[in-house]
Amino acid sequence: MGRIKALVIKEFRQIRRTRAYLGLIFVAPFVQLIVMGSAITNEVKDIPLIVVDGDHSPASREIINRFSALSLFDFRGVADSTVRADRLFDRGEIKAALVIPRGFERDMGRGLSPQIQVLIDGVDGNSAGVSLGYITSMAGEIQKGWIGSRATGAGAEIVPRFYYNPGLESKLNFVPGLIGILLFMITSMLTAINIVREKELGTLEQLMATPLGGIRLIVGKIIPFTVLGLVQFSVGLIAARLVFGIPVAGNLLLLYFMALLFIMSTLGLGIFISTVTSTQQQAMFVAWFSMIFALLLSGFFVPVGNMPPLVQKITLLNPLRYFMSVLREIYLKGTPFRYLLPEAAAMGGMGIGLITAATLRFHRRLE
Amino acid sequence: MGIREGSAAVEVRELTKRFGDFTAVDRVSFTVGKGEIFGFLGANGAGKTTTIRMLCGLLAPSGGEGSVAGYDIIGEYGKIKGRIGYMSQKFSLYNDLTVGENIEFYGGIYGLTPGEIRDRSGELFAIIGLEELKGKLTASLPMGWKQRLALCAGLIHDPAIIFLDEPTSGVDPLSRRNFWKLIYRLSDMGKTVFVTTHYMDEAEYCHRLSIMKGGRILEMDSPHALKGKYGAQNMQEVFLASLKEGS
């Protein structure tokens, strides 16, 4: 025990003298949450839109008026032809256009159900889908007005209510996720770099010449970086509360317990990376690579359920995937532990597996 | 912890290390007695460091056998590690710790209690002359002092044998001489010193020395006997003559 204590004390002394660590732990969560928490959103607002009016009738004017009045759209005027609309699309000035055909009102009067064409910039498929949704529901409402003025019988109306995030605010979804990503970054990358740095400096060889042994060495690295990770996690929780006013709906103790399991897996990954690389640059590169991988396959941007079946299977190896859903569950829904058992088991299992693999790779002898 | 009763400090037979096709150490045999200052003289790449690493349990030998402090270097390297001190070629203590913190750390790693560390480091600091520098950041020390600090860290657990891999490279002549005074002092205290060097003048200070080239030992005797054998005035001449004969 005394030997591990000596290692832990030494590690904290070094951390205290390294300003960059303090910045990473106390400043980075705030900066990252403020910047990314505000920037990352899948809410679609201010869609630049024009209307190509081929009809010039009271009906087409009503459509124009209704769309230009809605704040969801950034109404950019009326055009005479789709040629003009195409040019505006090419220049990136508009994202959507409504095309009202000639004879629209006349055909409607004859009961012919005329068509309105919607042109949408499909580069960002997600935003395009959301824009189309807005336009369709807007058009539906206008139509209901027309039908209501002429006919009586009405259809059923759907009244939505969103659970856990009533306003469908994306910050509620993204901010807890960001805390997880930050924790992944700090714990895996710093650990990998820290150990490889000792390799580069030759201090690791010196340690290997002592009776310390690989297991004690790894435990002596895990303890300080776990503490570091938990401190940073707490700073993240505080930042989420202060900056975005997002409180934790569930049990805080449970959240910390899950964070601890998650840290075990990311530290294991970091230590493992340090055993397969020999310079800080290599370690940094491998850690970055695994981080991007973990991030994209975590469900942070794209729900795991939307991924192809094979990729969904790959995400099962990603500790961030589990922690991402745990964070959202506990943060927003206050889910109790019994429903999070599979996630806890997966993260804990991966942690034990990775740390064991790293310890086995950490030969007592240098090769 | 000392050397096992009835054993030599170091004893190896036909010790070999191959890295792929390259043979770094080629069937080397020698014995080092207790309290001896045993030197390895050779150019860079002669196999000195590789031999030391095998003796310290850092590298597994490809062939041959040996013991350090009476324990087998293949099966019992765990027992060897607590009985030896090792100072590598490259300065490898922590630059961002103070002198005192480095010593405290190594004391802790070797399993000493805080009280033992205090007593032992007090003794060593007095001998080595580090007392006033205790609170200084290691990075701020000149190279000569860093090397003394590394020696101090290697001695904190009172090992019976100390391995010094080119301890004086990159140090000014005066510091080198002072370092050798320390080595003599250790020998007087009954410690076995195993030292590698490529400085000819330092070779003269050893009780016994072996000249290495291409992973093999060309000569092994006292500096006096070697000079007699080659009719040489100094070690420089011995070294060049032995290399010529050996090739």
- Quick one: overall form of chain A? elongated
The main sheet of chain A comes to: 4 strands, mixed
The count of helical stretches of chain B stands at: 9
SSE string of chain B, helices as H and strands as E:
EEEHEEHEHHHEHEHEEHH
Order of helices and strands of chain A: HHEHEHEHEHHHHHHHHH
Shape of chain B: globular
Task: List unreliable stretches of 5+ residues of chain A.
Answer: none
Content of β-strand of chain A: 5-15%
Measure the end-to-end span of chain B.
Answer: 42 Å
Number of strands of chain A: 4
How many separate helices of chain A? 14
What is the structural class of chain A? Answer: alpha/beta
Structural class of chain B: alpha/beta
What would you note in describing this structure?
A four-stranded mixed beta sheet of chain A has the order 2-1-3-4, sandwiched between helices. Chain A has two domains: 2-40 and 170-361, no CATH class; 47-150, 3-Layer(aba) Sandwich (abc type-2 transporter like fold), CATH 3.40.1710.10. Chain A has helices at 2-17, 19-39, 58-69, 82-90, 104-109, 125-150, 170-201, 203-208, 214-244, 252-276, 280-296, 309-314, 319-333, 341-361, and strands at 47-53, 73-79, 96-100, 117-120. Chain A contains 14 helices and four strands. By secondary structure, chain B is an alpha/beta fold. Chain B is 38% helix and 25% strand. Chain B has helices at 48-55, 77-81, 99-109, 114-128, 143-155, 173-188, 200-205, 223-230, 235-246, and strands at 10-19, 22-32, 37-42, 63-68, 71-72, 84-87, 161-165, 192-197, 208-213, 216-221. In chain B, the strands form two sheets. Chain B has a six-stranded mixed beta sheet with strand order 6-7-8-3-9-10, with helices on both faces. In chain B, helix 3 (99-109) crosses helix 4 and helix 4 crosses helix 5 (143-155). The model of chain B has no long low-confidence stretch (mean pLDDT 92). The A-B interface holds A 2-3, 5-7, 9-10, 13-14, 17-18, 201-203, 205-213, 364-367 and B 53, 56-60, 77-78, 81-82, 84, 86, 88, 90-94, 96-97, 101, 104-111, 113.
